[in-house]
Design a protein that fits this description.
122 residues; alpha+beta; 3-stranded mixed beta sheet; 6 strands; 20% strand; disordered N terminus
């Protein structure tokens, strides 16, 4: 049942392309894995992803969050990464004057007609 406990993550992308992943869960020694997961899904270096466990500045204290580490955390991180990539697709479409659906995600960048944009470019 621990994997099904409510998890919240918040993934911020700074204008520099660096990212901060805030977690409700306490540190579990897998923060490097979480940074690597974000990096893989969004095409950024893992060193550009800062992971903040039990981020009370972002989430506050209490609120019914289960702060115990569990296997549900990577799924929550993947969901947040998907949302960031979807938003980035829209921005890339505007920047590249292309329909977002026409863009391909390859090697950490959106590409169309020989042009490409990374999340850090936007």
């Amino acid at each position: 049942m621990a994997d099904e406990a409510y998890r919240a993550v918040f993934l911020r992308v700074h204008p520099t392309g660096k990212m901060v992943l805030s977690l409700t869960t306490e540190a579990d020694g897998k923060e490097g894995d979480y940074a690597a997961l974000v990096a893989e899904e969004l095409g950024v270096p893992a060193l550009d992803v800062k992971v903040v466990p039990a981020d009370e500045n972002r989430f506050g204290a209490g609120h019914g969050f289960n702060t115990s580490p569990s296997g549900g955390t990577p799924a929550a991180i993947s969901s947040a990464s998907e949302k960031i990539r979807a938003k980035a697709r829209q921005l890339a479409g505007v920047a590249m004057d292309a329909q977002p659906d026409a863009l391909r995600w390859e090697d950490g960048a959106f590409t169309a007609d020989g042009e490409s944009r990374t999340i850090a470019d936007m």
